[in-house]
């Protein structure tokens, strides 16, 4: 028996069927979507190459507190996207933001593949926000993730132009440009706070970096926390763990077993074996 999973083309295809979105990463698939007739105005985001909004998919997000919302497909999808954001209802939509080709707020670089980023959309607790994601022109459809990020309206802006370099060593050098005035900046490695630096600092050296590590900076001002900006580094390659050698009875062979440590999504490229210092 053969089973094929076919996406339901009606889910999120029009505003009335909008997919409920949450903060963080939301799955996005426009491959089976059709074109919606709802109006939008590229004049609200000039210079970003907002296109034809083909094969668009709709999301609805209802905030539980006032603040600002960032909406991004930046570097997270496999097609050239457009984003339009509305408030109101499906029968009375009011466009409040849009973007065609976005800029990665972490690096200041253009989003890969002409993906999109809408920053600092004002939101009010309990008032739904409708998010429309489509392709720039015919043939532009695909899959990936739609990221929603909340920040307090008075919170400090994120750091900018973040760069991380480790050169396969056990230290990583992080540099950035401050996007505002901060009291301090919190440094996190793989989600764990490891240090706090001064609000005027623009560089940091992280130690003990082995394998793949995600380093994030979180600005703080007036007791409010700004959005995290992160980068990934690959430090010193850690050795295999729990190496065990057992002679095989009746032979000159040895059975060797070990555990591979976490060194990134791809793991080791290979493992070389030496016997008495000689490559085997």
Kindly describe this structure.
This protein has 280 residues and is mainly beta. Helix content is 0%, strand content 46%. The strands form six sheets. Strands 1-3-8-5-6 form a five-stranded mixed β-sheet, with no helix packed on it. Strand 10 and strand 11 (171-177) form a beta hairpin. The model is unreliable at 1-6 (pLDDT under 50).
Provide key terms for this protein.
5-stranded antiparallel β-sheet, 5-stranded mixed β-sheet, single chain, 0% helix, mainly beta, 280 residues
Major beta sheet, strand line-up: 1-3-8-5-6
How many DSSP-defined strands? 21
- Please state the CA-atom Rg, rounded to the nearest Å: 24 Å
Global structural class: mainly beta
Shape: globular
Strand content: over 45%
Low-confidence stretches: 1-6
Secondary-structure blueprint:
Blueprint: E1 19-20, E2 24-29, E3 54-61, E4 67-72, E5 81-89, E6 92-99, E7 117-123, E8 129-135, E9 143-151, E10 160-165, E11 171-177, E12 184-189, E13 192-198, E14 203-207, E15 212-221, E16 224-225, E17 229-234, E18 241-247, E19 254-259, E20 274-275, E21 278-279
């Amino acid at each position: 028996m053969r089973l094929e999973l076919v996406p339901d083309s009606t889910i999120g295809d029009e505003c009335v069927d909008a997919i409920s979105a949450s903060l963080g990463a939301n799955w996005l698939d426009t491959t089976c979507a059709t074109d919606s007739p709802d109006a939008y105005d590229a004049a609200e985001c000039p210079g970003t190459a907002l296109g034809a909004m083909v094969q668009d998919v709709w999301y609805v997000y209802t905030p539980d507190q006032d603040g600002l919302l960032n909406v991004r497909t930046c570097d997270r999808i496999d097609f050239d996207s457009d984003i339009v954001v509305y408030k109101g209802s499906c029968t009375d939509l009011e466009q409040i933001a849009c973007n065609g080709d976005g800029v990665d707020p972490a690096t200041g670089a253009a989003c890969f593949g002409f993906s999109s980023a809408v920053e600092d959309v004002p939101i009010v607790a309990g008032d739904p926000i409708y998010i429309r994601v489509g392709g720039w022109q015919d043939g532009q459809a695909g899959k990936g993730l739609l990221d929603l990020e909340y920040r307090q309206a008075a919170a400090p802006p994120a750091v900018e132009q973040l760069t991380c370099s480790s050169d396969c060593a056990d230290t990583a050098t992080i540099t950035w440009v401050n996007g505002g005035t901060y009291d301090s900046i919190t440094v996190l490695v793989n989600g764990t706070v490891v240090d706090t630096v001064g609000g005027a600092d623009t560089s940091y050296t992280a130690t003990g970096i082995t394998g793949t590590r995600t380093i994030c900076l979180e600005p703080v001002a007036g007791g409010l926390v700004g959005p995290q900006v992160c980068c990934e580094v690959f430090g010193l390659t850690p050795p295999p763990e729990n190496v065990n050698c057992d002679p095989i009875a009746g032979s000159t062979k040895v059975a060797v077993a070990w555990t591979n440590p976490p060194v990134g999504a791809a793991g080791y490229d290979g493992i070389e074996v030496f016997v008495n210092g000689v490559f085997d």
